[in-house]
């Protein structure tokens, strides 16, 4: 395989043109994010099975030649656990490559492991043990050492071989289309769009707030998110979760009260005190019927818990028949939602519905039952 480190515009243009007729491309990115809100894009690796490229976005100001490749509908883009890689592309171009294939998602459907890491999957499928020495590299530093480039290239050279084997296995099992919904979700821009008004739902400890306190938290969390985006800093560097919660709980009305809150630093009040107090005032003025509400699952009754146990037993039976893990079909929370009457759930769409969802719904609604013969459970009806 020909290998290239690409850091000039002419190289990039020529090599992208040479990859134009590839039926698939294996892709990976290297980035750092410890000190920023957005990932700092440091390296892009591409392979078509014949050539492998390490593309340096730090030295290349214009990456537009890549767009003809990444957004070509005739080329399948192959990732492993590609969500963060795709987030980078969305951040750069407000578009996402499609069609795509994710080998981590496919692995769970082939019994190769749930949330399996790339190195483990390569070892399992190809019998190759990858070097891990460069896994803690600061990819923003230049020049990169040969060992680091080798590590980066291996991420796509072997990814293509894994993809080809997985695709052949899925086709032989009649399961290739099962993953369409999962891959379409990864390629949906809505997956990567930021909604500041919903960020309060990620604040740890929010369940201890009530009433107008939640409205205040919503305003504060949205403000923090926008500040983090503007400054390109981690959101918790702006204000920690516990500080947001304390402000929302106490709802101070002036800077003196704000400064008395545990953990609130003078610097925060000096820089943003007026903004925070204005947000609190705005939230308190919101009519009660417009306060945000987080749907919380009711504590299941003993009967519902027993039914969930029964469904879990049925799920294991159905998963064993397909030789896949029950966890990829549904978890306990999803079964609880089914029992509570929810029907707009992943279990009742796509391949999950045909493999298990319909049967489990029949069990809930009494059209099927679990029976045992000589101690072996089976589903009848």
Main attributes?
381 residues; alpha/beta; Nucleotidyltransferase, domain 5; DNA polymerase, domain 1; 6-stranded mixed beta sheet; 16 helices
Characterise this structure:
The chain is α/β, with parallel strands linked by helices. It folds into three domains: 190 residues, Ribonuclease H-like superfamily/Ribonuclease H (Nucleotidyltransferase, domain 5, 2-Layer Sandwich); 95 residues, DNA polymerase, domain 1 (Orthogonal Bundle), CATH 1.10.150.80; 79 residues, DNA polymerase, domain 1, CATH 1.10.150. The chain is built from 16 helices and eight strands. It has a six-stranded mixed sheet, with helices on both faces. The chain has a two-stranded antiparallel sheet with strand order 7-8. Strand 2 and strand 3 form a beta hairpin. Helix 13 packs across helix 15 and helix 13 packs across helix 16. The longest helix has 28 residues. The chain is flat and about 65 Å long. The mean pLDDT is 94.
What's the total helix number? 16
Helix % is 40-55%
* Order of strands in the sheet with most strands: 1-4-3-2-5-6
CATH homology-level superfamily of the largest domain: Ribonuclease H-like superfamily/Ribonuclease H
Mean pLDDT: 94
Question: Which residues form runs of ≥5 with pLDDT under 50?
Answer: none
Query: Mind summarizing the main beta sheet?
Result: 6 strands, mixed
Write the CATH fold name of the largest domain.
Answer: Nucleotidyltransferase, domain 5
**Strand fraction:** 5-15%
């Amino acid at each position: 395989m020909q290998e290239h480190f690409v850091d000039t515009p002419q190289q990039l243009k020529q090599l992208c043109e040479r990859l134009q007729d590839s039926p698939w491309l294996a892709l990976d990115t290297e980035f750092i994010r410890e000190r920023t809100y957005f990932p700092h894009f440091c390296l892009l690796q591409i392979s078509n099975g014949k050539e492998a490229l390490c593309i340096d976005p730090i030295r290349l100001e214009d990456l537009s030649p890549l767009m003809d490749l990444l957004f070509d509908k005739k080329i399948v883009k192959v990732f492993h656990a590609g969500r963060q890689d795709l987030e980078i592309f969305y951040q750069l171009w407000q578009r996402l490559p499609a069609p795509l294939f994710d080998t981590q998602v496919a692995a769970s459907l082939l019994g190769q492991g749930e949330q399996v890491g790339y190195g483990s999957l390569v070892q399992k499928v190809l019998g190759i043990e990858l070097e891990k020495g460069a896994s803690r590299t600061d990819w923003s530093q230049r020049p990169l050492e040969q060992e680091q480039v080798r590590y980066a290239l291996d991420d796509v050279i072997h990814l293509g071989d894994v993809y080809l084997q997985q695709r052949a296995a899925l086709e032989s099992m009649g399961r290739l289309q099962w993953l369409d919904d999962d891959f379409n979700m990864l390629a949906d821009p809505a997956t990567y769009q930021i909604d500041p008004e919903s960020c309060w739902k990620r604040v740890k400890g929010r369940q201890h707030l009530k009433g107008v306190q939640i409205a205040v938290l919503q305003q504060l969390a949205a403000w923090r998110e926008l500040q983090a985006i503007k400054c390109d800093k981690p959101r918790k560097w702006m204000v920690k979760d516990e500080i947001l919660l304390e402000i929302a709980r106490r709802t101070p009305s002036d800077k003196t009260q704000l400064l008395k809150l545990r953990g609130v630093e003078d610097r925060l009040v000096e820089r943003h005190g007026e903004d925070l107090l204005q947000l609190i005032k705005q939230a308190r003025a919101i009519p009660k019927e417009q306060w945000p509400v987080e749907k919380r699952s009711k504590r299941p009754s003993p009967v519902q818990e027993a039914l969930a146990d029964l469904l879990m037993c049925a799920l294991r039976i159905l998963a064993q028949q397909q030789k896949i893990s029950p966890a990829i079909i549904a978890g306990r929370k999803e079964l609880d939602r089914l029992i509570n009457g929810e029907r707009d759930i992943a279990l009742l769409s796509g391949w999950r519905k045909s493999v298990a969802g319909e049967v489990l719904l029949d069990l809930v609604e009494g059209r099927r039952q679990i029976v045992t013969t000589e101690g072996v459970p089976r589903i009848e009806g």
